[in-house]
Amino acid sequence: MTLTKRISTIILTTFVITIIAGSSAFAQKAPEFSNDLMMGDKTYAYLIADKLEYRSVGGSNPIMWDIKGYIGKDLGKFWFKSHGEAVPNESQAHMEFQGVYSRAISPYLDVLGGLRYDLAYEHGNKSRGFATVGLQGKAPYFIHFESGIYVSEDGDISADLEAEYDLLFTQRLIGQPIFETSVALQETSEWGVGSGLNNIGLGFRLRYEFVREFAPYIGINWERKLGKTADMARTEGGHVDSFSMLGGVRMWF
After folding, report:
1. Measured between alpha carbons, how far is 198 from 192 in angstroms, rounded to an integer?
2. So where are the chain's domains?
3. Could you tell me which residues come within 8 angstroms of residue 201 by beta carbon, excluding any fewer than 6 positions away?
4. 105: helix, coil or strand?
5. pLDDT tens digits, residue range 9-59?
6. Pair 92, 119: CB distance under 8 Å
7. Which of 146-174 are b and which e, b meaning 16 or more Cβ less than 10 Å from the residue's Cβ?
8. Residues 6+ apart with CB under 8 A from 204
């Protein structure tokens, strides 16, 4: 092979390799940057009826609910929460609504702030509003908790705490112990709330998840008023403590 042919062969081979390498590099080129590629920038919506149940309590048999939902991103969300109970045959109801904004301050903890509004239908209608701040998330050992501090429109200060834990017997059968308590710095006789530790609640729910989004459950619940709140209940002829059997459904979307 002459020198000219050898040079031509080298040039042609180099050209072919360059074309192939260039095509491969183009094929592997990263897509243009977009916020849609960042998981933390996606907007999510969520709604859950964490508790929707019927209780048997001394013949009153109230319906109780705990519903919450949010729309937002990983770090910041707007929440709507509703909690309460109603006794249909006695036209009594106590309802609580919250609109709050939460901000993640760690992978397992959110700080939140917003407004709360209470309504009560019992011996006349009444209502009150609060500003609120709080924390929610997972404590060590994956105990889920929600807590809040509330300042009413009259300047009364109170706080509450709820903690629960999912105990997996199987992948579908789940037990859930629950602890609740609340405290107030001032007495609010109109609402039957005394200063100090107001109450304590213990419960256990056993649910079966046919699918993750739908789980009927049964359980028990015990509540007791404490201190001045218990004294007010006795004076008005109400119950200081109660034990109930319950059944309901937990579902989310």
Report:
1. 10
2. 1-30, 38-252
3. 178, 179, 180, 181, 221, 222, 223, 224
4. strand
5. 544 454 444 444 444 444 444 555 455 555 557 899 999 999 999 999 876
6. no
7. bebbbbbeeebebbbebebbeeeeeeeeb
8. 175, 176, 177, 178, 219, 220, 221
Burial group, residue 213, by CB count within 10 angstroms (0-12, 13-18, 19+)? exposed
Q: Contact 199/225 with Cβ under 8 angstroms?
A: yes
The owner of tokens 């006695």 is 90
Task: Report CA dihedral (130, 83, 136, 145) to the nearest 10 degrees.
Answer: 130
CATH superfamily placement of domain 38-252: monomeric porin ompg (2.40.160.40)
What's the token pair of residue 41? Answer: 């920038």
CA 118 to chain centre: 19
Q: What is the mean pLDDT of residues 89-112?
A: 93
Distance CA 59, CA 61 (A): 6
